[in-house]
Amino acid sequence: MTLEAEDAMSAEIAFAKVTTELDALQRAAYAVADVMTVDITAAGDRYVCTLYPRNPGADPGMLAHRIRAEVIDQALRLRIATQTEPLRNLIFALAFSRTGLAEAEEPPS
């Protein structure tokens, strides 16, 4: 935990770039915005997240646990989305093919 003059107390937590996508970190930061704000910076092979509690009496350790859990959740959501994308595209293609919206128009003569 560090003290900064312009901000209240903050805590830092780092994630390896090889195991954590920036998108997952940003989604996690958004998901926990009710209890903290998160500043994400790249530092070498890591992303460093500085956590700023909205409640000055918040336990920095609990904030770190919360963001870790949320990052894992968001990373898994992204992985599932990637793995199921072909199936979702197939379902959409089938659904739209039956509406007549996907029919090819004949070129004007």
Write the layout of secondary structure elements.
Elements: E1 11-16, H1 22-31, E2 36-43, E3 46-53, H2 60-97
Antiparallel strand pairs: 1-3, 2-3
Helix pairs in contact: 1-2
What brief labels describe this structure?
109 residues; alpha+beta; Alpha-Beta Plaits; 3-stranded antiparallel beta sheet; 2 helices; 3 strands; elongated; disordered N terminus
Spell the H/E element sequence: EHEEH
Give the helix proportion (percent range).
40-55%
Mean pLDDT: 87
How are the strands of the biggest sheet laid out side by side? 1-3-2
- Using the CA coordinates, give the radius of gyration: 21 Å
Number of strand elements: 3
CA distance, first residue to last residue:
73 Å
Name of the top-level CATH class: Alpha Beta
CATH topology: Alpha-Beta Plaits
Structural class: alpha+beta
**Shape assignment:** elongated
| Major beta-sheet overview | 3 strands, antiparallel
CATH architecture: 2-Layer Sandwich
Domains counted in the coordinates: how many? 1
Q: What's the helix count?
A: 2
